[in-house]
Amino acid sequence: MEQFNKKQIIELLNSKIQIWRFPRLLKELDGDADTLQVRLTKKLSSYELQGSENREQTARKIRNWLAGKNQPANREELFRICFALGFDREKTETLFLSADENSIHYRNPRELIYAFCLEKGYSYPLALELVQELGEENMSGSRLENQAKIRKTSDTDSTQTMTASIRDEFKRLDTLDDLKQFIQKNRETFGYHHNTAYRKFKVMLSYLLTGKSDHESYSNIPREKRYSIERATEEYLRMGLPYQKKSGHYSKVEKIIKRHWPSPKMVQEMYSRKRDVNRKTLLLLYLATEGMGVSEPSETSFVQEHCQRIDLMLTSCGMPLLNPHNPFDYLVMQSLHLENDDDFMSWKMERILKKLFREPYQPSYVAVGENEDENGR
To answer: What HEC string does 81-123 produce?
Structure first.
């Protein structure tokens, strides 16, 4: 990928790069843009619980989606859209990768059942019935018990079935009986978080906190040299990004880049497994730790080596690969082009962000107020 200076990067982001936003992608996947709004309104209205939302409210929400004013608020809404439009599993995954930055989570029993029903052409109401019959109640113990178990075992590969293996086995299922047997067989390994992503998150975060990998002893590190999660997030991951709640003055590109950017509170919740580790946080940790060290490759360039390592990490976590048409991914890839031997990837990213957002730089050690929202705004 060609290297640009910071001014050229900003110009490219704001003018030349083509961003496939939610409404355009939805229309492309559906293939019938002329009737899309009418069909979505009819189907989604029928899915709503009686009295929870009237048809006009649903129609208004859909108009806003298709106009690009906002997009679905959560993954359940995305699944309902895919059922309403008759998407198969492949189209559903494409939509999720764009709108939520994460694909279908095959170790989440609800999403696994949805994926099966979408692939087989079953309706959303039937999928909900199957969730009640085969979903959380079929897991060993309560949801809280399972989350506690996952927190205890998520650091060890041997005690958890990898999401990729579950996904590959899932693709061979054909009948409802196959699905029931599959859920029964794998109920011990179901969870609501991506364990592979959590393991990689902990290794890289531990490296920032102590300068050592997660598997090395911290006993010889003075307490005053150990970073708190809050300080590490502010110093290494925030990169001077503004915290403003109001986003009306931001461009579309800036909003995309800022979305899901980790705050100290978010990172702490990821660490304690109250929140799933998101893709943006993993990529920022990779930059902040320099990939935890990569020597100069002999057969490929330094940039190519890092891109391959990042894509391998994302693949193992069930997340989309680097995409130069995504503004944040584009900045990540540009941050791998280091201008001199004294540069770090995270420093280059921070300099680009400061120029892009044109905000007065706030020192990273300044504490953030408790009233920030989950996107750090």
So the answer is: HHHHCCCCHHHHHHHHHHHCCCCCCCCCHHHHHHHHHHHHCCC
Tokens of 177: 């009986």
CA distances 37 to 34, 81, 85, Å, are: 8, 11, 11
Check: CB of residue 300 under 8 Å from CB of residue 359.
Answer: no
Mean pLDDT along residues 295-319: 80
What is the CB neighbour count within 10 angstroms for residue 219?
5
C-alpha to C-alpha distances, 28 to 96, 209, 321, 357, nearest whole angstrom: 14, 44, 20, 31
Closest CA to 320 of 95, 155, 25, 108: 95
List, for residues 76-131, the tens digit of each pLDDT value.
999 999 999 999 988 998 888 777 767 788 878 899 999 999 999 999 999 999 99
Please list, in sequence order, all residues whose beta carbon lies within 8 angstroms of the beta carbon of residue 45, skipping any fewer than 6 positions away. Answer: 55, 58, 59
CB 302 within 8 A of CB 296: yes
The rounded distance, in Å, linking the Cα atoms of 195 and 165 is: 13
pLDDT of residue 174: 93
For residues 141 and 149, the answer to whether their CB atoms sit within 8 Å is: yes
**Residue positions counted in the chain:** 377
pLDDT at 180 over 80: yes
Percentage of residues of the chain with pLDDT beyond 90: 31
